[in-house]
Amino acid sequence: MKKNIILLALTLASTSAFTSEETFSINDVTLLELGKPLPLKSEGGIEAFVASGAWTDVVTNPTIRSAGQVYRGPIMSPSANTPSTSKVTNITWQWNIFNYNSSLITYLCETAQGRCIDVSGNFGAGANLEGANVSASTSWQFLFYMPGSGTLSPTMYGQNGSVAVTYQ
Q: Which of 30, 62, 25 is nearest to 147 (CA)?
């Protein structure tokens, strides 16, 4: 059974695939097909970060007060000199919520096309996005959804969230 969620009073950049008010079904999120993160090299270097470029961004995620509502973290954007013709090879993420509830659904979404990675319960990890055709100049955003309805007790307080993107 799909539950539609009305997003109210949320603003995003006009370039986002998500609009400020929309009917949003958490069950209809388009998930990226992911490969496994590249392995560590035996000599200790991280093979996943051998790329022609990289960018990182850090944000403070939202406070989650109500169930049945989608909360969006701030947009994490690349630097202005990130080439739009380059493609993401790997992305790593980190996010924290104080008073975390294991029922919290969490996605890391590229804002250009609205495709997402399910990072629920996965506070820090990475994914190989080679072949997913994601532009290195794409911004990213965390989405949080707590199933149910009503006020949450205790409230979940957003902490830092970050991405590190490598590209070729």
A: 25
Read off the tokens for 30.
């388009």
Note whether residue 49 is domain-resident: yes
Q: How confident is the model over 99-114, as pLDDT tens digits?
A: 999 999 999 999 888 8
Closest CA to 154 of 78, 109, 75, 98: 98
Q: Which domain holds residue 149?
A: 29-167
Residue 39 to residue 132: CA distance in whole angstroms: 19
Q: Going by C-beta distance under 8 Å and a sequence separation of 6 or more, which residues neighbour residue 164?
A: 54, 55, 56, 91, 92, 93
Domain count across the chain: 1
Of 161, 128, 160, 167, the closest CA to residue 37 belongs to 128
